[in-house]
Amino acid sequence: MTFRDFPQTPLSLRYLLLELLVKLFTIGIFSVEEGLKAWFELILVTTAICASGYLLWWQVPLLLIVVILSPIAAGMFSLLAPVYMNSENFTANNQFASTIQFISEYNLKEILRLSGDDLEQRLKQIHEVQKIFNENPKLVEQISKLQLALDNINQTHDIAVTKVTHNNKIKERKRYEEAEFKRKEWEDYQESLKKAAELKARQEKWLNEQRRKAQFTGGCPPYNKKCRDGYPIKVTIDKKEDGFDGIIWKPSDTEYEGIEPKWCYESVEEAEKEHGKYKFRRPKNSRGKPRK
């Protein structure tokens, strides 16, 4: 017997049908006797088929038939129970027990390759199967192969629980590591902002001191006869007759590279707004007008 010999329906549906099929086959469904027993088995088979069809196709009429026939079958079984509860009827169903055992062995092997959501879903299905067997202890006691199947199911359950627990620990550790990484990243970011703010404060303090000493209200002192980054505009001290104290030079001026700055500014506008000890203007063109 191979796995292809069984109906190719999802294993989850087989689990849902397991309780119904166990009860159905283990009470001697293949009886050919006449009378009340034959009618009982006809009703039971019809109920089983309708229940199976409902679980497979979710058709409401099938469910209604099950609801109607199930109480009838239950009442008839209370009268016929002594007839069925004999060893001959149980031994006649070894083939079904073998099928259940085969499915349990298949799942025992399959559980080893499952992971993630598939593993957790299978564990829920195993819980359902265990519940079915636990609710039918007499059947398990009287059919030895069902006990073997139950052992396989319990072993599968233990493996699944171990794997799920291990996976949950991995997920929890991963969540913790991600949270720690984000926390550390946030702390580093805040620390960088703090250091940047402290550096800016020190630079502004130093710059204000330099301006005060040199009697400037804006700009920045040059370094090694060159303007610092961010302050490209040069000014020179050269008292003019029009009342200005120096000239403003920008990088586009042809004379720019040869000019040694007295002070530097971020823009021409800032240099023109200087209102400390000095006043500056742009150099004049050939027509006597300040350059743009």
UniProtKB/TrEMBL annotation:
Instruction: Name the keywords, alphabetized.
Output: Membrane, Transmembrane, Transmembrane helix
- Specify where the region named Disordered lies, as residue ranges: 271-292
**What's the superkingdom here?**
Bacteria
Listed transmembrane segments = 12-32, 38-57, 62-85
Basic residues compositional bias, start-end: 278-292
Any idea what this protein is called?
Answer: Uncharacterized protein
Source organism of the structure: Pseudanabaena catenata USMAC16
